Amino acid sequence: MSSSAPSSATKTSDPEPGSAAEPSWEEPDRPTGAAPTSGWTTLGVATGSAVAVGVLAVALGAATGWATLAGLVAVVADSLILLCYGGAAVRAGRAQLRERAAAELDAQASHNQLQKLIDNTAAVIYMKRIDNGRYLLVNREWERLFKVDRAQVIDMTDQGVFPKELADQLRENDLWTAEQGRTVQFEETAQTDRGPRTYVSVKFPVFDSSAEPYAVCGISTDITEWKQAEAEARRLAAELETRVRNRTAELEASNKELDAFAYTVSHDLRAPLRSLHGFSQALQDDYTDRLDDTGREYLRRLQANVARMGHMIDDLLNLSRSTRVELGRRDVDLGAIADEIAEELAAVDPQRQVTVVVREGLHAHADPQLLRLLLQNLIGNAWKFTGRNTEPVVEVGRCERDDQTFFVVRDNGAGFDMRYADKLFTAFQRLHPAAEFEGTGIGLAIVARIVHRHGGRVFAEAAPDQGASFYFSLEGHMTEQPAQVAQPALVA
Known about the structure:
The structure is a single chain. This protein is α+β, with helices and mostly antiparallel strands and 492 residues long. The protein has 3 domains: 38-222, PAS domain (Beta-Lactamase); 230-324, Helix Hairpins, CATH 1.10.287; 329-492, 2-Layer Sandwich (Heat Shock Protein 90), CATH 3.30.565. The protein is 50% helix and 16% strand.
């Protein structure tokens, strides 16, 4: 058994295997104190009295000349004295024997109770003498694990049970415990029929009436499964750390590729687009009178597709930026951002009269630039898809759903069929034809990435021609609560 605790105790040699062993677990050479001696005292008094009477009778006979009579009196007196005192001595001796037998029975009963107690525990329990290392006591679990009967182990030391290296370590631990004079904990390993098992052993010295340690008691609990689980957890943690490190390296490589892509999109692709736009504008300005209606229509389509390609490049850059930019959370007034975006849309499309309702108390803990990008896409979509409604309404508010607070952007526009809702937040997926509503199909993918980067959720509810509601949450502390958290209604 190997031990995790150091031991500075001096090693002592174990006795020869054939030497005498204690048959009991009682403490050795224990002083028993003054045993009852009333029987021997009575007999001593009787003998002394008889001798004194004899001496007195001899002296009286010599003085009176009646030696025979004096001797007879002495004999009778001595007999009576010995008879009386002898009976008392016999009675006292019998009482002493009964008391000793009762004490032995009590001691045996206590021993049996102790043995039953330790036999019915799952821990390994044992007691060994300090002077020679011989076992005084083992429990049934010890017998089961090490295949040695308790009647045999009384004559054995650890050398007779375990391999030498393990036995020496156990002996060293026992001596260390005795030297410390207190409870000590070790981690020890023993070979059993189930293979090597690891135990946490709590050992403590047992003292005699002179306050000297004469034995060491140990209680060992099997922690093999726990140690195996701990080793497995460490292995999994190391494996996970390796996987995370590899994944991080892959993400860093992907981010570098995205940076290169963003650079290519923003520079290399925009250059030919600018050339197309410039030449098409020159045709329109300088040669429009030379073109027939068909030529002017081709030119218009060319300019429209150049503009559409420019918007797509902007959206791709925003999609890349929403993934790569460092997240910097702070308290943000979401309502103020929504008002600014609504004003910008109204300035770009002044002929439309759209009612935009922004509820009060819309505050979040989020990245302000990404949050603005998110709202630009959601409010821009609501503005776009209400284009065929005579009384368009867009609302920005908050509500409670499933015990969670969500921000919501609603409109009363074209809506969509919920059967296709799983396509909403995927790049380049459109639920409406481009001829009906222009767009690149990237905006909601940007929204989803921003929400997920904040640790939130995003989903939508809609019906064809009945508008749509987009819900999103942003993980983090909500700095302000609105006066009324009930789900807001559309305001015409």
